[in-house]
Amino acid sequence: MKSAFRIFGNDAFRKRYSKEENRRPISKALFEAWSVGLARRSDSEIDILINKHKKVNNRFISLMNEDEEFDKAISYSTGIPVRVRKRFQAIDKLIKDCL
Fold first, then answer.
1. 8 Å CB contact between 89 and 97
2. Kind and range of the H or E run holding 7
3. SS3 category, 17
């Protein structure tokens, strides 16, 4: 949780479509995907992500805007297995791309 806060600040686990929009409520689906994605990383990888927090945030905003299936996976019928896999895979790929 501390890592997520250090990467995203007060926007941790929240949908973000642009840097200028108002803060939204915490998303349970994003909490789940980011928590697991970050927990799977080593301390050195977390340090890299914290140092690259702007890149991580920008990539996340791009993911939210460009991947309609990801947006659905965190917004509608979030318990459907295909949507669970989609959000976990998308967050994992985003993390790997930023490392």
1. no
2. helix 2-8
3. coil
Residue 19 within any structural domain of the chain: no
Q: Which residues contact 12 (CB under 8 A, 6 or more apart)?
A: 1, 4, 5, 26, 34
Contact status, residue 6 vs residue 53, Cβ threshold 8 Å:
yes
Tell me, yes or no, whether 78 lies in a domain.
yes
Question: Which amino acid is present at 22?
Answer: N
Tell me if 67 is assigned to some domain.
yes
Which tens digit of pLDDT belongs to each residue from 44-65? Answer: 999 999 999 999 999 999 999 9
**Who contacts 77 (Cβ-Cβ below 8 Å, separation ≥6)?**
83
- Contact status, residue 8 vs residue 57, Cβ threshold 8 Å: yes
> In the predicted model, is pLDDT for residue 87 greater than 90?
yes
DSSP state letter for 13: T
Q: Is the pTM of this model over 0.85?
A: yes
**How many structural domains compose the chain?**
1
